[in-house]
């Protein structure tokens, strides 16, 4: 579904991602792991078409189509959507109005859009936030759950999910994991989940994992094996392999 070949990413003239190759097959959830400042979030932003994160080298193909130089809007139209690690506050936009608008844009009739919005809100326990301005005064867990709700409303072909378990409580992690699993079952064709801690990985169905260090994807393998190494020994074993 998604293939990265030797991708390098620049942000404001600085090379952040130096070389990244990754493949996401249909039906997969793939983990992208690495320490802070290794380039994981920058890579996802570049894949989503963020204008400040430019693919300076390499290629990105979605279902066989080269999308390397497409705009963010064009990538979204093809079903590639990013859930940000730190979503912005949207002044004057309530959670209810945004979710409803996204569901209507998907083609749902008014009544079905309203019903689906309420179902998503209940699943992620954000009912009490529906009439509040998006992001204003939310806790870390609430902000992440609302961002995942927008992803569910969009129902993308490929979901890029950045650090869903960072800075949130355990209850939020479980709710977000349930939403990710539902998306997997309901037609989202593939997901890349960035996680530093690996906490979310205990609660979702994943097949493979990639390790990113210092702007390079340096290792790929079965996710259970890689996760076990990271949780017990950190990223040092992978750094030793690279240095060797």
Largest sheet: 6 strands, mixed
Secondary-structure element series:
EEEHEEHEHHHEHEEEHH
Q: Specify the number of helices.
A: 8
Which range does the strand content fall in? 25-35%
Which sequence of strands runs across the widest sheet? 6-7-8-3-9-10
Could you tell me the mean pLDDT?
94
The residue fraction in helices comes out at 25-40%
Radius of gyration (CA) equals 18 Å
CATH topology: Rossmann fold
Tally of strands: 10
Unreliable sequence segments: none
By CATH reckoning, the class would read: Alpha Beta
Secondary-structure content class: alpha/beta
Distance between the termini: 33 Å
Count of separate structural domains: 1
Shape: globular
Oligomer description: single chain
CATH architecture, by name, is: 3-Layer(aba) Sandwich
CATH superfamily: P-loop containing nucleotide triphosphate hydrolases
Structure description:
The chain is an alpha/beta fold and 244 residues long. The protein has a single domain, classed as P-loop containing nucleotide triphosphate hydrolases (Rossmann fold, 3-Layer(aba) Sandwich), CATH 3.40.50. The protein is built from eight helices and ten strands. It has a six-stranded mixed beta sheet with strand order 6-7-8-3-9-10, with helices on both faces. It has a four-stranded antiparallel beta sheet with strand order 2-1-4-5. The radius of gyration is 18 Å and the shape is globular. The chain starts with a strand and ends with a helix.
């Amino acid at each position: 579904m998604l293939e990265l070949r030797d991708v390098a990413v620049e942000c404001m003239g600085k090379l952040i991602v130096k070389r990244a190759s990754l493949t996401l097959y249909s039906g997969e959830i793939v983990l992208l792991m690495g320490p802070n400042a290794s380039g994981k979030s920058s890579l996802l932003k570049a894949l989503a078409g963020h204008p400040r994160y430019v693919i300076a080298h390499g290629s990105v193909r979605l279902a066989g189509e080269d999308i390397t130089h497409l705009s963010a809007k064009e990538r979204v139209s093809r079903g590639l959507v990013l859930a940000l690690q730190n979503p912005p506050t949207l002044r004057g936009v309530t959670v209810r109005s945004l979710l409803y608008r996204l569901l209507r844009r998907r083609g749902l009739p008014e009544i079905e859009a309203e019903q689906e919005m309420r179902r998503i809100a209940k699943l992620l326990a954000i009912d009490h936030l529906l009439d509040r301005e998006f992001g204003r005064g939310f806790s870390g867990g609430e902000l992440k759950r609302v961002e995942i709700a927008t992803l569910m409303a969009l129902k993308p072909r490929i979901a890029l999910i950045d650090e869903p378990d960072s800075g949130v409580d355990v209850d939020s992690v479980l709710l977000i994991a349930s939403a990710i699993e539902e998306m997997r079952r309901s037609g989202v064709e593939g997901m890349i989940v960035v996680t530093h801690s690996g906490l979310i990985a205990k609660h979702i169905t994943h097949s493979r994992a990639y390790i990113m260090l210092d702007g390079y994807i340096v290792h790929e393998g079965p996710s259970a094996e890689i996760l076990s190494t990271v949780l017990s020994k950190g990223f040092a074993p992978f750094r030793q392999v690279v240095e060797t």
